[in-house]
Amino acid sequence: MVIEIAEFTAVPGHEEALAQGLSAAMAHFRASPACLGITLRRCLEDPAIFLYEVQWASLTAHVEGFRKSPLFASYRAHITGHFVEPVRMRHFSTME
Q: Could you give the CA distance from residue 66 to residue 56 in angstroms, rounded to a whole number?
């Protein structure tokens, strides 16, 4: 399993639109068989910053599967224009 952490910063004045878009877009992640779970978080110190924590079956499942599927375009349609580019995104493994 791989954890994707994606950090979004809202365009000033678009904080609530981004919050709503990210929330609605979670359904597109959940529709992917490779998505094992997703959590949306909002920063307490700076409410313009949001994090997605997405559990993927593998890095390939995310990068080659989801990102190249129609689900990716559908997800982005919810948030386009509401966040500052680029999104800061990294993949992590669990250390035990």
A: 10
